[in-house]
Write a structure and sequence with these properties.
There is one protein chain. Helix content is 28%, strand content 18%. By secondary structure, it is an alpha/beta fold. The strands form 3 sheets. The chain has a 5-stranded parallel beta sheet, sandwiched between helices. A two-stranded antiparallel ribbon has the order 3-4. It is elongated, with a radius of gyration of 21 Å. Bound molecules: S-adenosylmethionine. The site of S-adenosylmethionine has 19 residues, from strand 5 and helix 5.
Length: 239
């Protein structure tokens, strides 16, 4: 299988290092990369500037605080990086104003051949280059980060763990919170999990899990999923 290719445009490429102790150098992303399921490369937007100070930002027109990332380095970096590989890239701009990153969107992205992630900084990117590049705009939540790098890492981790073979246990991603179980029309939260010992601080593991009756266990887990979703995330019941 050809690995999913992820290119990241950023002013902080070191954030995406594949070597430990960097975030992507550990755990499932690192293993998926070693297994040839995914490859990623971060490109420095500063390498696509034309001024000798490698400036990627400037003062905002109209005044006000902060800086705005200029069009030209973003425009040139997108085209230079896209030209490296003939496969079409799904362009994604990380922004708090984008489509919320939910599991359905993660599933859509996990079957693409190639993603191009653009991480903003400061006040964001000059709107004109966004209009021209027409990226999908994606937000990881209703809060503001100082830069798009952390959002890109979140998106990458969520996508990579869905690649076939990325998780040790094949079934586990399809039963996680927000995944659509076979026969269900809504996305439920996961059920609670327990492991050894059978009793801890006077608390016993639910007896059904020790019964060995797989049908009963599956029914209990589904009931737990539904009850938890009703209690904690009733909004998921009416998508
Ligand atoms: N002025 C912008 C606004 O209020 O919409 C916020 C800019 S933020 C300080 C700088 C950069 O961080 C953004 O360009 C974006 O790339 C990234 N960012 C911040 N919050 C984010 C979020 N919730 N999801 C995705 N990216 C985010």
């Amino acid at each position: 299988m050809t690995p999913l290719r992820i290119d990241i445009l950023t002013t902080f490429p070191e954030v995406f290092s594949a070597d430990p102790p960097a975030f992507l150098g550990a755990s499932i992303p690192a293993r998926a990369r070693r297994a040839g399921l995914v490859e990623w490369r971060a490109f420095n937007l500063r390498d696509h500037t034309r001024d000798k100070h490698q400036k990627t930002d400037d003062r905002p027109f109209g005044g006000g605080p902060g800086m705005v990332m200029t069009c030209q380095p973003v425009w040139e970096a997108v085209h230079a990086v896209e030209a490296i590989d003939p496969r079409p890239a799904t362009r994604i701009l990380l922004t708090p104003q984008g489509r919320p990153l939910r599991q359905g969107l993660v599933e859509e992205l996990a079957i693409k051949p190639r993603l191009l992630l653009i991480a903003g900084h400061y006040e964001g990117i000059d709107e004109r280059v966004v209009e021209r590049l027409k990226p999908q705009e994606v937000s990881i939540g209703d809060y503001v980060l100082s830069g798009g790098e952390a959002a890109a890492l979140v998106l990458m981790d969520a996508v990579i763990r869905l690649l076939p073979g990325a998780l040790g246990h094949e079934g586990s991603a399809s039963e996680d919170s927000f995944s659509m179980l076979p026969g269900e029309s809504i996305r439920l939260l996961d059920c609670p999990h327990y492991t050894k010992p059978r009793e801890w601080m006077g608390m016993a593991v639910p007896g059904v899990l020790l019964s060995g009756d797989h049908g009963e266990i599956a029914r209990w887990r589904l009931d737990q999923r539904r009850a938890r979703t009703r209690e904690r995330r009733p909004d998921l019941l009416n998508p």
